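WARN no homologs supplied; continuing
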Amino acid sequence: MLASAFSEVVSLGAVLPFIGVLTAPDRVFNKPVVRELAGTMGITSPNQLVFPLVLVFVLVALATGALRLLLLWANTRLSEVIGSDLSSEAYKRTLYQPYKIHVARNSSEVISGILGKIGMATDVLYSLLVSASSTFLLVVLILALMAIDPVAVSMVSAVFGLSYGGISWFCRRKLKVNSQRIARESTQQVKALHEGLGGIRDVLINGSHPIFCDIYRKADTSFRRAKAS
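OK structure emitted
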Protein backbone atom coordinates (compact mmCIF):
# COMPACT_ATOMS: atom_id res chain seq x y z
CA MET A 1 0.00 0.00 0.00
CA LEU A 2 2.81 2.39 0.91
CA ALA A 3 4.72 1.74 -2.32
CA SER A 4 1.58 2.05 -4.44
CA ALA A 5 0.55 5.30 -2.76
CA PHE A 6 4.02 6.78 -3.21
CA SER A 7 4.07 5.80 -6.89
CA GLU A 8 0.65 7.40 -7.41
CA VAL A 9 1.94 10.69 -5.97
CA VAL A 10 5.04 10.54 -8.20
CA SER A 11 2.85 9.75 -11.22
CA LEU A 12 0.56 12.67 -10.38
CA GLY A 13 3.53 14.99 -9.97
CA ALA A 14 4.97 13.92 -13.34
CA VAL A 15 1.87 14.97 -15.29
CA LEU A 16 2.45 18.74 -15.22
CA PRO A 17 6.15 18.64 -16.29
CA PHE A 18 5.19 16.18 -19.04
CA ILE A 19 2.45 18.48 -20.39
CA GLY A 20 4.67 21.53 -19.93
CA VAL A 21 7.56 20.13 -21.94
CA LEU A 22 5.18 19.18 -24.76
CA THR A 23 3.39 22.53 -24.93
CA ALA A 24 6.03 25.05 -23.79
CA PRO A 25 9.52 23.50 -23.62
CA ASP A 26 11.17 26.96 -23.50
CA ARG A 27 9.36 27.90 -20.29
CA VAL A 28 10.29 24.58 -18.64
CA PHE A 29 13.91 24.84 -19.79
CA ASN A 30 14.25 28.32 -18.25
CA LYS A 31 13.48 26.99 -14.77
CA PRO A 32 16.73 27.10 -12.72
CA VAL A 33 16.34 23.56 -11.43
CA VAL A 34 15.59 22.16 -14.89
CA ARG A 35 18.46 24.10 -16.48
CA GLU A 36 20.88 22.78 -13.86
CA LEU A 37 19.72 19.17 -14.31
CA ALA A 38 19.78 19.55 -18.10
CA GLY A 39 23.36 20.81 -17.92
CA THR A 40 24.50 17.72 -16.01
CA MET A 41 22.86 15.55 -18.69
CA GLY A 42 24.45 17.47 -21.57
CA ILE A 43 21.14 18.98 -22.77
CA THR A 44 21.64 22.41 -24.29
CA SER A 45 18.27 23.23 -25.95
CA PRO A 46 14.61 23.05 -24.88
CA ASN A 47 13.69 20.57 -27.61
CA GLN A 48 16.17 18.06 -26.22
CA LEU A 49 14.08 17.90 -23.03
CA VAL A 50 11.14 16.18 -24.74
CA PHE A 51 12.52 12.66 -25.13
CA PRO A 52 14.00 12.27 -21.60
CA LEU A 53 10.86 13.60 -19.91
CA VAL A 54 8.57 11.45 -22.06
CA LEU A 55 10.70 8.42 -21.21
CA VAL A 56 10.58 9.23 -17.49
CA PHE A 57 6.81 9.75 -17.62
CA VAL A 58 6.25 6.44 -19.42
CA LEU A 59 8.48 4.57 -16.93
CA VAL A 60 6.69 6.16 -13.97
CA ALA A 61 3.27 5.30 -15.44
CA LEU A 62 4.33 1.69 -16.06
CA ALA A 63 5.79 1.35 -12.55
CA THR A 64 2.62 2.81 -11.03
CA GLY A 65 0.43 0.42 -13.01
CA ALA A 66 2.63 -2.54 -12.05
CA LEU A 67 2.43 -1.64 -8.35
CA ARG A 68 -1.34 -1.21 -8.61
CA LEU A 69 -1.64 -4.68 -10.16
CA LEU A 70 0.63 -6.11 -7.46
CA LEU A 71 -1.56 -4.55 -4.76
CA LEU A 72 -4.68 -5.95 -6.44
CA TRP A 73 -3.06 -9.41 -6.58
CA ALA A 74 -2.01 -9.21 -2.91
CA ASN A 75 -5.50 -8.17 -1.77
CA THR A 76 -7.14 -10.92 -3.82
CA ARG A 77 -4.69 -13.56 -2.69
CA LEU A 78 -4.96 -12.64 0.99
CA SER A 79 -8.76 -12.61 0.99
CA GLU A 80 -8.98 -15.96 -0.82
CA VAL A 81 -6.45 -17.63 1.50
CA ILE A 82 -8.34 -16.40 4.56
CA GLY A 83 -11.60 -17.56 2.94
CA SER A 84 -10.10 -21.01 2.43
CA ASP A 85 -9.09 -21.15 6.10
CA LEU A 86 -12.58 -20.12 7.20
CA SER A 87 -14.27 -22.65 4.90
CA SER A 88 -12.01 -25.50 6.04
CA GLU A 89 -12.53 -24.60 9.71
CA ALA A 90 -16.31 -24.40 9.25
CA TYR A 91 -16.35 -27.85 7.63
CA LYS A 92 -14.12 -29.29 10.38
CA ARG A 93 -16.31 -27.91 13.18
CA THR A 94 -19.42 -29.20 11.45
CA LEU A 95 -18.04 -32.73 11.20
CA TYR A 96 -17.10 -32.77 14.90
CA GLN A 97 -20.61 -31.89 16.09
CA PRO A 98 -22.52 -34.57 18.08
CA TYR A 99 -24.79 -36.89 16.12
CA LYS A 100 -28.01 -35.45 17.62
CA ILE A 101 -27.11 -32.03 16.20
CA HIS A 102 -26.51 -33.54 12.76
CA VAL A 103 -29.92 -35.20 12.86
CA ALA A 104 -31.74 -32.08 14.03
CA ARG A 105 -30.06 -29.67 11.62
CA ASN A 106 -30.93 -29.22 7.96
CA SER A 107 -27.91 -30.21 5.88
CA SER A 108 -28.83 -27.57 3.28
CA GLU A 109 -28.03 -24.84 5.81
CA VAL A 110 -24.61 -26.38 6.44
CA ILE A 111 -23.78 -26.74 2.75
CA SER A 112 -25.00 -23.22 2.01
CA GLY A 113 -22.97 -21.85 4.90
CA ILE A 114 -19.72 -23.59 3.98
CA LEU A 115 -19.92 -23.04 0.23
CA GLY A 116 -21.99 -19.89 -0.20
CA LYS A 117 -21.81 -17.69 2.85
CA ILE A 118 -18.09 -18.21 3.42
CA GLY A 119 -17.62 -17.07 -0.18
CA MET A 120 -19.65 -13.95 0.55
CA ALA A 121 -17.58 -13.33 3.67
CA THR A 122 -14.46 -13.58 1.49
CA ASP A 123 -15.92 -10.98 -0.86
CA VAL A 124 -16.57 -8.69 2.10
CA LEU A 125 -12.99 -9.17 3.30
CA TYR A 126 -11.67 -8.34 -0.18
CA SER A 127 -13.82 -5.19 -0.26
CA LEU A 128 -12.43 -4.16 3.14
CA LEU A 129 -8.86 -4.64 1.91
CA VAL A 130 -9.56 -2.59 -1.21
CA SER A 131 -11.22 0.09 0.93
CA ALA A 132 -8.21 0.18 3.27
CA SER A 133 -5.72 0.51 0.41
CA SER A 134 -7.88 3.12 -1.34
CA THR A 135 -8.24 5.12 1.88
CA PHE A 136 -4.50 5.03 2.44
CA LEU A 137 -3.91 6.16 -1.15
CA LEU A 138 -6.53 8.90 -0.79
CA VAL A 139 -4.89 10.29 2.35
CA VAL A 140 -1.45 10.38 0.71
CA LEU A 141 -2.81 12.08 -2.42
CA ILE A 142 -4.76 14.65 -0.40
CA LEU A 143 -1.66 15.48 1.67
CA ALA A 144 0.36 15.89 -1.52
CA LEU A 145 -2.29 18.12 -3.11
CA MET A 146 -2.71 20.13 0.11
CA ALA A 147 0.87 21.29 -0.32
CA ILE A 148 -0.16 22.82 -3.68
CA ASP A 149 -3.56 24.35 -2.90
CA PRO A 150 -4.94 23.55 0.58
CA VAL A 151 -8.15 25.59 0.20
CA ALA A 152 -9.30 24.01 -3.06
CA VAL A 153 -8.35 20.51 -1.93
CA SER A 154 -10.18 20.95 1.38
CA MET A 155 -13.36 22.08 -0.40
CA VAL A 156 -13.27 19.26 -2.93
CA SER A 157 -12.52 16.67 -0.22
CA ALA A 158 -15.43 17.93 1.87
CA VAL A 159 -17.83 17.78 -1.08
CA PHE A 160 -16.83 14.25 -2.07
CA GLY A 161 -16.75 13.08 1.55
CA LEU A 162 -20.25 14.38 2.25
CA SER A 163 -21.52 12.92 -1.03
CA TYR A 164 -20.20 9.43 -0.31
CA GLY A 165 -21.38 9.63 3.30
CA GLY A 166 -24.87 10.65 2.20
CA ILE A 167 -25.08 7.86 -0.38
CA SER A 168 -23.93 5.30 2.19
CA TRP A 169 -26.47 6.50 4.75
CA PHE A 170 -29.28 6.51 2.19
CA CYS A 171 -28.50 2.99 0.92
CA ARG A 172 -27.72 1.26 4.23
CA ARG A 173 -31.26 -0.02 4.88
CA LYS A 174 -31.61 -1.38 1.35
CA LEU A 175 -28.24 -3.10 1.64
CA LYS A 176 -29.27 -4.71 4.92
CA VAL A 177 -32.54 -6.02 3.45
CA ASN A 178 -30.76 -7.36 0.36
CA SER A 179 -28.05 -9.06 2.44
CA GLN A 180 -30.68 -10.84 4.53
CA ARG A 181 -32.50 -11.92 1.38
CA ILE A 182 -29.28 -13.23 -0.18
CA ALA A 183 -28.49 -15.23 2.98
CA ARG A 184 -32.01 -16.67 3.10
CA GLU A 185 -32.42 -17.48 -0.59
CA SER A 186 -28.98 -19.03 -0.98
CA THR A 187 -30.03 -21.59 1.63
CA GLN A 188 -33.29 -22.18 -0.27
CA GLN A 189 -31.32 -22.73 -3.49
CA VAL A 190 -29.19 -25.44 -1.92
CA LYS A 191 -32.23 -26.94 -0.21
CA ALA A 192 -34.10 -27.24 -3.51
CA LEU A 193 -31.09 -28.84 -5.18
CA HIS A 194 -30.43 -31.16 -2.26
CA GLU A 195 -33.99 -32.36 -1.84
CA GLY A 196 -34.73 -32.59 -5.57
CA LEU A 197 -31.59 -34.49 -6.52
CA GLY A 198 -31.30 -36.40 -3.23
CA GLY A 199 -34.84 -37.75 -3.60
CA ILE A 200 -34.74 -38.13 -7.38
CA ARG A 201 -36.43 -41.54 -7.23
CA ASP A 202 -39.52 -40.10 -5.52
CA VAL A 203 -39.48 -37.13 -7.89
CA LEU A 204 -39.51 -39.45 -10.92
CA ILE A 205 -42.23 -41.64 -9.45
CA ASN A 206 -44.48 -38.78 -8.29
CA GLY A 207 -43.79 -36.53 -11.26
CA SER A 208 -43.04 -33.64 -8.91
CA HIS A 209 -40.46 -32.06 -11.19
CA PRO A 210 -42.41 -28.77 -11.57
CA ILE A 211 -42.65 -28.30 -7.79
CA PHE A 212 -38.91 -28.45 -7.21
CA CYS A 213 -38.19 -26.42 -10.35
CA ASP A 214 -40.58 -23.72 -9.11
CA ILE A 215 -39.03 -23.66 -5.61
CA TYR A 216 -35.55 -23.32 -7.07
CA ARG A 217 -36.58 -20.70 -9.65
CA LYS A 218 -38.23 -18.46 -7.04
CA ALA A 219 -35.24 -18.68 -4.68
CA ASP A 220 -32.73 -18.15 -7.48
CA THR A 221 -34.60 -15.17 -8.94
CA SER A 222 -34.91 -13.46 -5.55
CA PHE A 223 -31.24 -14.18 -4.76
CA ARG A 224 -29.95 -12.73 -8.02
CA ARG A 225 -32.16 -9.65 -7.91
CA ALA A 226 -30.94 -8.85 -4.38
CA LYS A 227 -27.34 -9.46 -5.41
CA ALA A 228 -27.68 -7.26 -8.51
CA SER A 229 -29.33 -4.49 -6.47
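The radius of gyration is 28 Å.
OK
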